[in-house]
Amino acid sequence: MAPVPDFEQMWRDLAPVGRSAGSGGYFRQPFTSAEREATAWFLEQCAARGLDVQRDRFGNLVAWWRPDGVAPAAAGRGVLVGSHLDSVLDGGAYDGPLGVVSSLAALDVLRDRGFAPTRPIGVGVFAEEEGSRFGLACLGSRLATGATTWDRARVLTDRDGVSLEDAVAGVQTGEADLLAEVGCFVELHVEQGRDLVDRDAAVGVASAIWPHGRYRFDFTGEANHAGTTRMEDRRDPMLTYAMTVLAANKQARLSGQRATFGRVDVRPNGTNAVPSAVTAWLDARAETAEHLDAMLADVERLAQERAGRDGTGLVVTAESVSGPVHFDAGLAARIAGPGSWPVIPTMAGHDAGVLSAAGVPTAMLFVRNPTGVSHSPDEHAETADCLAGVEALADTLERLA
């Protein structure tokens, strides 16, 4: 077998794919050319390592390492690692791809050590983790686990009206049940915060994921002329929306939770017109499901009260809600070892959370992010910390496989 690229070479090869020349951010939306190019890169890496690639009908991939004498695993015997290759709009380089590149590099480390696993090890790539195209986060893993049905998912559309069913029809898929062999799952991810910086640790282990959700706020009003319509005669949904953003910010600050309006669609979207409708999406996260429900109820109540004063309408729809995830404590302790890596919570959602909720024993490793910035072109991790993450993942696989 020809020599395979090491972590740093793989990272250099993947880095240009889907990167904007203007902002330096990434646009790897699922089933688009950039994401397909990244997937082709992954398949080339799998072929170079002699891995057995399986596909399901949703666009997810698992590449299995089965050394001589290690047959396909009985149900629940294989160890799965991996992450995703898609990005948010204008996202960072590390969110997702770091876990995929590190997983391939960890296999190389194990081979260099002469490690002979008694269980197959798979490297997975889940589709549409970010929800940046079809609006439902962790869509690939939700479909793989049955948390979301194909009948519900296939009719989801992107901003151009393309359905998920049509998008998936344009890529190569298969019929494999990718989780049939999986006995546990470990996802390595760049930390999306500064906990490890504060602890002066290069690597950490996840304890839990906060419950979180995405909610669509549809504000309706009356289109009118921006110059001739008196302020007191307006039914302006933009005003209701603006006050709702402030209310959400205040409620999150008061309760120590998270609330973000990061996407908005205005109609007719004219400079000299009062809008007729505003649709906005709230991302809300909290330390418990009760805190999340309470915060959302407060935001909606304040928004409805404001709509009553503005003469506008409001309908709130939950598009995606994920409950709290508590990772397998025994698995986390086994991975962290006696006092080696800190165990920390995360406020970000991951495929690992979906698999854990589906009953798969699951753990996460985090690699230090020096600024804590994520979902941005400024997202970063030092090479030395990334390599420490690769070693930590290899050590983890050696303990599990």
Brief summary of the model shown:
This is Allantoate amidohydrolase. The chain has 401 residues and is α/β, with parallel strands linked by helices.
Structure description:
InterPro entries: Amidase_Cbmase (IPR010158), Peptidase_M20 (IPR002933). It holds the Pfam family Peptidase_M20. This is Allantoate amidohydrolase. The protein has 2 domains: 7-210 and 324-400, Aminopeptidase; 212-322, Alpha-Beta Plaits (2-Layer Sandwich). Helix content is 34%, strand content 23%. The protein contains 12 helices and 15 strands. The protein is elongated and about 80 Å long. The strands form 3 sheets. Strands 1, 2, 3, 4, 5, 6, 13, 14 and 15 form a 9-stranded mixed β-sheet that branches. Strands 9-11-7-12 form a 4-stranded antiparallel β-sheet, covered by helices on one side. A two-stranded antiparallel ribbon has the order 8-10. Helix 3 packs across helix 12 (383-400) and helix 8 runs antiparallel to helix 9 (289-310). It has helices at residues 7-14, 33-48, 97-113, 139-145, 150-153, 164-169, 195-199, 237-255, 289-310, 329-336, 351-357, 383-400, and strands at 52-55, 61-65, 78-84, 121-126, 182-190, 203-209, 212-220, 224-225, 258-267, 273-274, 277-285, 313-322, 325-326, 343-346, 362-367. The chain has 401 residues and is α/β, with parallel strands linked by helices.
